[in-house]
Amino acid sequence: MFRSTTIANFKTRETPFYFYDLSLLEATLNEVVKASQKYNYHVHYALKANTNDEILKLIQKAGLGADCVSGNEVEKALAYQFAPTKIAFAGVGKSDKEINLALENEIFCFNSESIQELEVINELAVEKNKIANVALRINPNVMANTHRYITTGLEENKFGINMWELSTVMDRLKDLKNIKLIGLHFHIGSQITDLTAFKSLCIRVNEIQEWFDNRNVLLEHINVGGGLGVDYHNPDENAIPDFETFFKIFDDFLTLKKHQTLHFELGRSIVAQCGTLISRVLYVKNGVKTDFAILDAGMTELLRPALYQAYHKIESLTSKADISQKYDVVGPICESSDCFGKAIELPELKRGDLIAIRTTGAYGQVMELSYNLRDKVKAFYHT
Ligand code: LLP
Hints:
The protein has 383 residues and is an alpha/beta fold. Helices cover 29% and strands 23% of the residues.
């Protein structure tokens, strides 16, 4: 829901652009901090969701750590004053250059995904005479009930070490003297709205912890990743995700040892609702069966609908028409998949009307493409 003064402001700007409501981000951060502090949980922000300057500044200020999946993200987190001791570095394919950067900066932890990777981290750490803190990313084989492209915790996914490989990994670790095993890492998927998936994860983690207990391996840190979903259908009613219920599941079902710290890597739930893609109607075209509203934003600015058939609420900000009509809301890119929504009911549109595509703060601007030599999309912030 946008105030008329904000809409008036939009009218004077070149479209498309991302609009970020920083006061909503602050309110969301307050909630996540309050709810996690209750249990002494550590939250790392998953930079991959959004790396915009103003957003990173606020998240760092709120005291969150950083979860990075590339050397560039590690560098960015450091540049924005995230403490190295709060930076986790994950990813199934870390290059030597990226590992070296993380070693030099003595980050909190590498989340490691394979024996081969552990060997490389050890070798590079030996060269630098450093000890690398490592958490093993274990594939818990838990169903996340989300889109198949963003399910990551199943045996058939490329991510993590499978349970049956664990003894071999532990044997090999004995020889890797420059690696310090400090914990375990899990991540079952993203946009998870059925929270029972997290309960299943807790139960699985308890079992896996027993495996380590039986071998007298002490682990200081358990990291359960991210994945908390947001309400794409009702962005105004549910602007802030229910962090309390989310963290309570872990308090209720995960058995932590006295010396253990629990970590989370939340991306979407922190930034999704504060972002909106604002676009203009370029043309309204009457098709045989459908009418098309052709926007000046396309899959190059917001890829999620084309890539995952993701739903984003589409609203008209300026049309005053009393009658409504169904439109296929599409972009200008030369691809049929460049479509934000089919048969969307909107007040009758005309050229120049402003359109808001909601809940695009996470995995929106960061996934921008330069295909068709599109201009870089701009960001505009509101406090
Ligand atoms: N930790 C790990 C290891 C991850 O792979 C991810 C996301 C996160 C944390 C953060 O998850 P979140 O809290 O944001 O759900 N581009 C897709 C989402 C890809 C998520 C990749 N991993 C989308 O637009 O839906």
